[in-house]
Amino acid sequence: MYLVTFRLAPGEYDAEFHELNDAIQAAAEDTEGYLGKRTWHAPDDEEVLVVYYWETLDALESFGADSDHERAKRRWTEWYDAYEVTVTEVVEAYGSGFGEDANPFV
């Protein structure tokens, strides 16, 4: 499994951002190998972390080639003050305490 962590400092969002964001999410969900996402908002500032879960690196790369996703990457300065993407391969995942929600993507 692969995790893509998208860390962002939001800027100003307009209608075009929301339309493009919705199209990108739909493209992710339509990509074979997409497992889901989780979003966290920092309590002390506006920073947001979105973690996307992918079954394989090929699935992630397929999504990365989506035309809407490519367009959004070129235009990031219009909507974000800053962003950072980290791609991580999961070697092992374990734990307890979250019940049925412990690891919903595996």
From TrEMBL:
<keyword id="KW-0560">Oxidoreductase</keyword>
<dbReference type="Pfam" id="PF13826">
    <property type="entry name" value="Monooxy_af470-like"/>
</dbReference>
<dbReference type="GO" id="GO:0004497">
    <property type="term" value="F:monooxygenase activity"/>
</dbReference>
<keyword id="KW-0503">Monooxygenase</keyword>
<protein>
    <submittedName>
        <fullName>Antibiotic biosynthesis monooxygenase family protein</fullName>
        <ecNumber>1.14.-.-</ecNumber>
    </submittedName>
</protein>
<dbReference type="InterPro" id="IPR025444">
    <property type="entry name" value="Monooxy_af470"/>
</dbReference>
<dbReference type="InterPro" id="IPR011008">
    <property type="entry name" value="Dimeric_a/b-barrel"/>
</dbReference>
